[in-house]
Amino acid sequence: MAGMDQGIAPRAVTQGQDRLSARLEQYGLPRAAIEVLLSRHTLVRYPKGASLFGKGSPADVVFAVMSGMIKIFCSAGPDRILIDLAGPGDLAGYADFSEIGGVRSQIFEAEALTTTCVALFTRDHILRVLRGLESGSLLAVTESINSLWASVVYRCAGFLAMPLRARLESVLVDLARRFGANDARGVMLTPELGQESLAEMIGGSRPMVSRLLMEMTEEGLIVRDGRRYILLRAKWPGMENAGASPASNAFPPLAAARNGRRLDGKPRGASARASA
Asked: pTM value?
């Protein structure tokens, strides 16, 4: 492991590396190859609000979050769309585009949501590891990458079919499964996301998100604890494992959007239709 900054907690980095190893193994990468991959990287600490990379910046490294959390944006003209959060064990900076001359550049941009430590892996190092794989292992990794991008397309397509209320429900469920902490009342969302960030994640406005959150609070679906939200477990189907398992590809609100009903089983009212 590269030299560690004094502000980087070794235990947190170890936990992040363990999660990254488990994820790479799920992708089909052999344990020996994972050890070789993790043997060469550079740890970098970013303060809250710092930019990790911007759109168009060189895509010569891949970022692996060891501790903390980052926000990943897609620039759309003057606006930015918050497309994902990345926490310990997650990868970022792997999506790029090729410019004239074959130079590869970042297609998204990333910003530290909290004080964050990331491991930087050069693409040359990653390619050398992949070239050393047997054909069966390489095929398994390729299939995993295909499934990963297919799930992204599925999610985006599902969002297009949803009114804003269903999109917000989807985001909250996903955050609970990936970054939730068990609470006596349900699952607490550990990221401190304001209404503006939630609006960026669902393609809505801050006033609309404020109204939807108030509506969900009145229905007993969520409660607020300081700057964090708690999803009341009894009100959310399929949340039994939230806060205790890694990210899931499940997307339960999609079915609710298709049949015109909310997650609590009630028909969607005029307010929900107005937010579509």
From this structure: 0.78
